[in-house]
Amino acid sequence: MEKELRDNISRIRQEKKISQKEMAEKLGISRASYISMEKGKTRLLNENVEKFAALNNVSPSELVLGYRISEDVHTLQEAQADYGRKRQEIIDAYEERIAKLNQEIEGLNQQISDLRDSIDTKKDVIAMLRGRLRDHGLSDV
Fold first, then answer.
1. Which candidate, 66, 17, 9, places its Cα nearest to that of 36?
2. N- to C-terminal Cα distance for the chain?
3. Measured CA distances, 126 to 63, 114, 132, 134, 139 (Å)
4. Angle, to 10 degrees, between the axis of helix 46-55 and the axis of helix 2-15?
5. Domains of the chain as residue ranges with CATH
């Protein structure tokens, strides 16, 4: 974590186009002390981190993490909202598809029932015709 903090301090200083000497002066330390701090030879003190953050218009958490929390939180919230919308769209689409499939199943079950009734009717007709054949002394074919 210390290395990331040093890397972030160095990166931000360079992005702001501030020399190590200028930054050291702003922090009220010697250039050598600042260079040692940036290189990791000297441990960073919280007061220097806070001063550096204030001087460079960044939060201490941005120095430690390497990014702005508020922007990432906003991005995260947008991603969560987008995820929620997409999730709901998928759920709605599946529920609609399920409803259509259930209707199709109902229709198919009705067809099966109708076909069973038709088969039963045909069986009854066949049984009746066989009975007539027997009544007339004719055998089943």
1. 9
2. 95
3. 91, 18, 10, 12, 13
4. 30
5. 2-67 (1.10.260.40)
Q: pTM for this one?
A: 0.43
CA dihedral 111, 113, 114, 119 (to 10 degrees): 120
pLDDT tens profile 86-135:
999 999 999 999 999 999 999 999 999 999 999 999 999 999 999 999 99
Distance CA 58, CA 71 (A): 12
Residue 2 neighbours by CB under 8 Å, 6+ apart: 40, 43, 44
Handedness of CA 88, 92, 97, 98 (dihedral sign): positive
pLDDT of residue 1: 56
pLDDT in tens, 39-97: 877 766 666 778 888 888 887 777 777 666 655 566 777 878 888 889 999 999 999 99
